[in-house]
Amino acid sequence: MSDDATLSAFRLADSFLPDGSHTASYGLEQFVQADRVTDADELEALLETYLRRQVGPADLVALRAAHAGAGDGDLDAVLRADRRLAATTLAAEFRESATAAGGRLLDLQCAAREAPLLERYARRVDARDAPGMHPAVLGAATAVAGVGEREACLLCCHALVTGLLGAAQRLLALGHTDAQRLLVALRPAIRAAVDDSTTRALADMTPFTPLVDVLTAEHERADRRLFTS
After folding, report:
1. Stretch 153-165: mean pLDDT, rounded?
2. What percentage of the chain exceeds 70 in pLDDT?
3. What is the longest distance spanned by two Cα atoms in the chain?
4. Which of 24, 75, 139, 172 could disulfide-link to 63, CB 3.0 to 4.6 Å?
5. CA distances from 221 to 44, 93, 135, 168, 224 (A)
6. What is the pLDDT of residue 220?
7. Residue 122 pLDDT > 90, yes or no?
8. Closest to 197 in 3D by CA, of 209, 187, 205
9. Domains within the chain, CATH numbers bracketed
10. d(CA 79, CA 132)
11. CB atoms < 10 A from the CB of 223, how many?
12. Quick check: pTM over 0.85?
């Protein structure tokens, strides 16, 4: 990648990026409330499940399809990836979090650079012709920025894990050292998720995290909530 593309990747992976993802725990809050995640080891197991059973078989498939479509200047291909991911995301809170973060990311990208394809994409999202799911938006944005497809997938996984570790620091007694240890320990799961997505087409999305879906549904009705999901 060029230096500009590499710097764009750093910016998109930075927690400083104000896309609102810090407001979501993607089910982790309810796992903690239900005493299903109480320490760093249980957190590592849950994050590995997210990566291997949700991100690899679904989010990264949509990201790759959107990246390829944007790289070819084919907005319809980006929209197909976006809609398919929304259709296969069972939990309402996950869809809401992903569309909120995706819409914000799309607005930020349009404000930061001239990108006709992203501007047309934003208009379709504003018209509710597409949901604007974050992985699809990220795929399109990284393609426009010249970030490679595999690098974009690694970026997506890294951003998800760091976001969840940030949530865990507010929900658990998780220190910065444990968070860094988990970032390293989860590298094999990240690589496995990225590799799993390489041969899947949009029709082959098979996310399967039933316990995550059940607890996320319970989170919708929880009396106390620190996070939106």
Report:
1. 93
2. 93
3. 49
4. 139
5. 26, 11, 26, 21, 9
6. 67
7. yes
8. 205
9. 3-9+30-217 (1.10.4190.10)
10. 8
11. 5
12. yes
